[in-house]
Amino acid sequence: MAHSTLRKVTMAVLAPAMALGATVGLASAPASAAVWSSCDQWGNTTLNGYTLYNNIWGSGAGSQCIWANSGTNWGVNANHPNTGGIKSYPNAKKVINKSITSLASLTSGYNVSVPSSGAYNTSYDIWDTGYKYEIMLWVNKTGAVGPLGTSQGTVTLGGHTWTVYKGNNGSNDVFSFVRTSNSTSGTVNVLPILKWIKDTKGWFGNVTIGDLQFGFEITSSSGGLNFTVNSESVSSS
Protein backbone atom coordinates (compact mmCIF):
# COMPACT_ATOMS: atom_id res chain seq x y z
CA MET A 1 0.00 0.00 0.00
CA ALA A 2 1.46 3.33 -1.01
CA HIS A 3 2.11 5.59 1.90
CA SER A 4 3.60 8.97 2.73
CA THR A 5 6.88 8.71 4.58
CA LEU A 6 7.80 12.05 6.12
CA ARG A 7 4.95 11.54 8.55
CA LYS A 8 6.92 9.28 10.84
CA VAL A 9 9.91 11.45 11.49
CA THR A 10 8.87 15.01 10.82
CA MET A 11 5.11 15.30 11.06
CA ALA A 12 5.25 16.19 14.75
CA VAL A 13 7.48 19.13 13.86
CA LEU A 14 6.24 20.14 10.42
CA ALA A 15 2.50 19.71 10.70
CA PRO A 16 1.25 19.90 14.27
CA ALA A 17 -1.92 21.61 13.10
CA MET A 18 -2.94 19.01 10.52
CA ALA A 19 -6.67 18.37 10.85
CA LEU A 20 -7.90 14.81 11.15
CA GLY A 21 -11.19 13.39 9.94
CA ALA A 22 -12.13 12.33 13.45
CA THR A 23 -11.49 13.64 16.92
CA VAL A 24 -8.21 12.48 18.43
CA GLY A 25 -7.90 11.70 22.11
CA LEU A 26 -10.89 9.55 23.00
CA ALA A 27 -9.12 6.20 23.34
CA SER A 28 -8.39 4.92 26.80
CA ALA A 29 -5.00 4.87 28.40
CA PRO A 30 -4.02 1.61 30.12
CA ALA A 31 -5.77 0.79 33.36
CA SER A 32 -2.48 0.43 35.23
CA ALA A 33 -0.51 3.57 35.89
CA ALA A 34 2.29 4.15 33.40
CA VAL A 35 5.34 6.37 33.68
CA TRP A 36 3.97 8.44 30.79
CA SER A 37 0.85 8.48 28.65
CA SER A 38 -0.70 10.78 26.07
CA CYS A 39 -3.77 10.90 23.86
CA ASP A 40 -2.45 13.91 21.92
CA GLN A 41 -2.05 13.51 18.18
CA TRP A 42 1.67 14.31 18.32
CA GLY A 43 2.28 13.30 21.95
CA ASN A 44 5.95 12.47 22.54
CA THR A 45 8.52 12.06 25.27
CA THR A 46 12.02 10.67 25.78
CA LEU A 47 12.67 7.80 28.18
CA ASN A 48 16.05 6.13 28.75
CA GLY A 49 17.43 7.07 25.35
CA TYR A 50 14.32 6.35 23.25
CA THR A 51 11.88 8.95 21.94
CA LEU A 52 8.26 7.80 21.94
CA TYR A 53 5.69 9.24 19.52
CA ASN A 54 1.92 8.77 19.44
CA ASN A 55 2.13 10.00 15.82
CA ILE A 56 -1.44 10.00 14.48
CA TRP A 57 -0.64 11.36 11.05
CA GLY A 58 -3.08 9.89 8.49
CA SER A 59 -6.34 11.33 7.22
CA GLY A 60 -9.57 9.84 8.54
CA ALA A 61 -7.93 8.71 11.76
CA GLY A 62 -9.83 7.92 14.92
CA SER A 63 -8.51 8.05 18.47
CA GLN A 64 -5.32 6.63 19.94
CA CYS A 65 -3.55 6.83 23.29
CA ILE A 66 0.04 5.85 23.99
CA TRP A 67 1.48 4.74 27.33
CA ALA A 68 4.98 3.82 28.43
CA ASN A 69 6.64 2.19 31.40
CA SER A 70 10.01 2.86 29.74
CA GLY A 71 11.39 3.59 26.30
CA THR A 72 11.39 -0.14 25.59
CA ASN A 73 8.08 -1.19 27.20
CA TRP A 74 5.14 0.74 25.81
CA GLY A 75 1.95 0.40 23.81
CA VAL A 76 -1.13 2.04 22.36
CA ASN A 77 -4.87 1.59 22.42
CA ALA A 78 -6.05 2.60 18.96
CA ASN A 79 -9.57 2.96 17.59
CA HIS A 80 -9.23 3.77 13.90
CA PRO A 81 -12.09 3.18 11.44
CA ASN A 82 -12.17 0.27 9.04
CA THR A 83 -11.12 2.35 6.04
CA GLY A 84 -8.07 2.32 3.80
CA GLY A 85 -4.95 4.38 4.33
CA ILE A 86 -2.45 4.40 7.18
CA LYS A 87 -3.73 6.32 10.19
CA SER A 88 -0.78 6.26 12.57
CA TYR A 89 2.70 5.01 13.27
CA PRO A 90 3.24 5.03 17.04
CA ASN A 91 6.90 4.24 17.58
CA ALA A 92 10.00 4.39 19.72
CA LYS A 93 12.99 6.03 18.07
CA LYS A 94 16.68 5.45 18.73
CA VAL A 95 19.18 7.80 17.08
CA ILE A 96 22.17 6.04 15.47
CA ASN A 97 24.03 8.78 13.52
CA LYS A 98 26.72 6.55 12.01
CA SER A 99 27.62 5.88 8.41
CA ILE A 100 27.19 2.31 7.20
CA THR A 101 30.93 1.75 6.81
CA SER A 102 31.63 3.07 10.30
CA LEU A 103 29.13 0.68 11.88
CA ALA A 104 30.66 -2.50 13.29
CA SER A 105 27.26 -3.82 14.34
CA LEU A 106 23.61 -2.78 14.46
CA THR A 107 21.12 -5.19 16.00
CA SER A 108 17.69 -5.01 17.56
CA GLY A 109 15.50 -7.34 19.59
CA TYR A 110 11.72 -7.15 19.81
CA ASN A 111 8.84 -8.80 21.66
CA VAL A 112 5.33 -7.58 20.89
CA SER A 113 1.70 -8.47 21.58
CA VAL A 114 -0.59 -7.60 18.68
CA PRO A 115 -4.30 -8.11 17.93
CA SER A 116 -5.64 -10.84 15.64
CA SER A 117 -7.98 -8.38 13.90
CA GLY A 118 -7.60 -4.98 12.32
CA ALA A 119 -5.17 -3.96 9.57
CA TYR A 120 -1.60 -3.07 10.52
CA ASN A 121 2.05 -4.05 10.39
CA THR A 122 4.69 -4.18 13.09
CA SER A 123 7.79 -2.64 11.59
CA TYR A 124 11.15 -1.02 11.88
CA ASP A 125 11.45 2.26 10.00
CA ILE A 126 15.08 3.24 9.41
CA TRP A 127 16.13 6.57 7.88
CA ASP A 128 19.30 8.16 6.64
CA THR A 129 20.07 11.57 8.11
CA GLY A 130 19.02 13.32 4.88
CA TYR A 131 15.64 11.51 4.80
CA LYS A 132 16.26 10.45 1.20
CA TYR A 133 16.06 6.75 1.97
CA GLU A 134 13.64 4.77 4.11
CA ILE A 135 14.22 1.12 5.00
CA MET A 136 11.20 -0.69 6.45
CA LEU A 137 11.44 -4.12 8.07
CA TRP A 138 8.01 -5.68 8.57
CA VAL A 139 8.18 -8.44 11.16
CA ASN A 140 4.43 -9.12 11.07
CA LYS A 141 1.31 -7.93 9.30
CA THR A 142 -2.43 -8.49 9.56
CA GLY A 143 -5.31 -7.45 7.31
CA ALA A 144 -5.33 -5.54 4.05
CA VAL A 145 -1.90 -3.91 4.18
CA GLY A 146 1.00 -4.04 1.76
CA PRO A 147 4.28 -2.23 1.06
CA LEU A 148 4.96 0.49 -1.47
CA GLY A 149 6.69 -0.45 -4.73
CA THR A 150 7.36 -3.61 -6.69
CA SER A 151 8.71 -6.95 -5.55
CA GLN A 152 12.44 -7.51 -5.97
CA GLY A 153 12.31 -11.15 -4.91
CA THR A 154 13.12 -12.94 -1.69
CA VAL A 155 16.32 -12.76 0.32
CA THR A 156 17.57 -14.15 3.65
CA LEU A 157 19.39 -11.49 5.64
CA GLY A 158 19.86 -10.53 9.27
CA GLY A 159 18.43 -13.80 10.58
CA HIS A 160 15.12 -13.64 8.65
CA THR A 161 13.75 -14.31 5.18
CA TRP A 162 12.10 -11.33 3.51
CA THR A 163 10.28 -10.39 0.33
CA VAL A 164 11.87 -7.12 -0.78
CA TYR A 165 9.96 -4.22 -2.35
CA LYS A 166 11.46 -1.10 -3.93
CA GLY A 167 9.50 2.09 -4.52
CA ASN A 168 9.41 5.86 -4.26
CA ASN A 169 6.68 7.97 -2.68
CA GLY A 170 7.64 11.21 -4.41
CA SER A 171 9.79 12.37 -1.49
CA ASN A 172 12.20 9.50 -0.92
CA ASP A 173 13.07 5.97 -1.95
CA VAL A 174 11.47 3.22 0.13
CA PHE A 175 12.97 -0.26 0.54
CA SER A 176 10.58 -2.60 2.34
CA PHE A 177 11.57 -6.00 3.69
CA VAL A 178 8.44 -8.01 4.52
CA ARG A 179 9.07 -11.11 6.60
CA THR A 180 7.72 -14.17 4.79
CA SER A 181 5.99 -15.35 7.99
CA ASN A 182 4.73 -13.40 10.96
CA SER A 183 6.90 -13.08 14.07
CA THR A 184 6.13 -11.47 17.42
CA SER A 185 9.60 -11.85 18.95
CA GLY A 186 13.14 -12.18 17.72
CA THR A 187 16.38 -10.42 16.90
CA VAL A 188 17.22 -8.62 13.68
CA ASN A 189 20.80 -8.09 12.56
CA VAL A 190 20.20 -4.83 10.72
CA LEU A 191 23.70 -4.09 9.41
CA PRO A 192 23.80 -6.91 6.78
CA ILE A 193 20.52 -5.57 5.39
CA LEU A 194 21.98 -2.09 5.01
CA LYS A 195 25.14 -3.49 3.43
CA TRP A 196 23.08 -5.59 1.00
CA ILE A 197 21.21 -2.47 -0.15
CA LYS A 198 24.47 -0.52 -0.47
CA ASP A 199 26.95 -3.08 -1.78
CA THR A 200 24.92 -5.80 -3.49
CA LYS A 201 22.14 -3.69 -5.00
CA GLY A 202 23.77 -0.26 -5.17
CA TRP A 203 20.52 1.47 -4.24
CA PHE A 204 22.37 3.98 -2.08
CA GLY A 205 25.95 4.81 -1.12
CA ASN A 206 27.64 5.12 2.25
CA VAL A 207 24.77 7.00 3.85
CA THR A 208 24.65 7.96 7.51
CA ILE A 209 21.91 6.12 9.37
CA GLY A 210 19.99 8.58 11.52
CA ASP A 211 16.78 7.31 13.11
CA LEU A 212 15.90 3.70 13.85
CA GLN A 213 12.23 3.52 14.77
CA PHE A 214 10.14 0.53 15.83
CA GLY A 215 6.38 0.49 16.14
CA PHE A 216 3.01 -0.24 14.61
CA GLU A 217 1.79 1.14 11.28
CA ILE A 218 -1.96 1.04 11.82
CA THR A 219 -4.54 1.25 9.04
CA SER A 220 -7.64 0.14 10.97
CA SER A 221 -8.41 -0.96 14.52
CA SER A 222 -12.15 -0.48 14.79
CA GLY A 223 -13.60 -0.85 18.28
CA GLY A 224 -10.28 -0.18 19.98
CA LEU A 225 -7.34 -2.59 19.80
CA ASN A 226 -4.22 -2.89 21.97
CA PHE A 227 -0.69 -2.99 20.56
CA THR A 228 2.12 -3.61 23.05
CA VAL A 229 5.90 -3.61 22.90
CA ASN A 230 6.74 -5.94 25.77
CA SER A 231 10.46 -5.35 25.25
CA GLU A 232 12.79 -3.87 22.69
CA SER A 233 16.52 -3.33 22.41
CA VAL A 234 18.75 -1.49 19.96
CA SER A 235 22.51 -1.92 20.01
CA SER A 236 25.12 -0.36 17.73
CA SER A 237 28.87 -0.05 17.68
Q: How does this model look, in words?
A:
This protein has a single domain (6-236), classed as Glycoside hydrolase family 11/12, catalytic domain (Jelly Rolls). The protein is built from two helices and 15 strands. It has helices spanning 6-14, 190-201; strands spanning 36-38, 44-47, 50-53, 63-70, 73-79, 91-99, 106-113, 119-128, 133-142, 150-157, 160-168, 173-179, 185-189, 208-220, 225-236. A nine-stranded mixed beta sheet has the order 2-3-6-14-8-9-12-11-10. A six-stranded antiparallel beta sheet has the order 1-4-5-15-7-13.
* Binned strand content: over 45%
How confident is the prediction overall: mean pLDDT? 90
How many distinct beta strands? 15
Order of adjacent strands in the largest pleated sheet: 2-3-6-14-8-9-12-11-10
At the fold tier of CATH, the topology name is Jelly Rolls
Distance between the termini: 34 Å
- DSSP summary: helix tally: 2
Our count of domains comes out at 1
> In CATH, what is the homologous superfamily?
Glycoside hydrolase family 11/12, catalytic domain
- How do the helices and strands follow one another from N- to C-terminus? HEEEEEEEEEEEEEHEE
Low-confidence stretches at least 5 residues in length (pLDDT < 50)?
Answer: 1-29
Helical/strand content category: mainly beta
What is the CATH first-level class name? Mainly Beta
For the largest beta-sheet, the strand count, sense and barrel status come to: 9 strands, mixed
Name the shape in a single word: globular
Into which percent range does the helicity of residues fall?
under 10%
Corresponding CATH architecture: Sandwich
**Which radius of gyration do the C-alpha atoms yield?**
17 Å
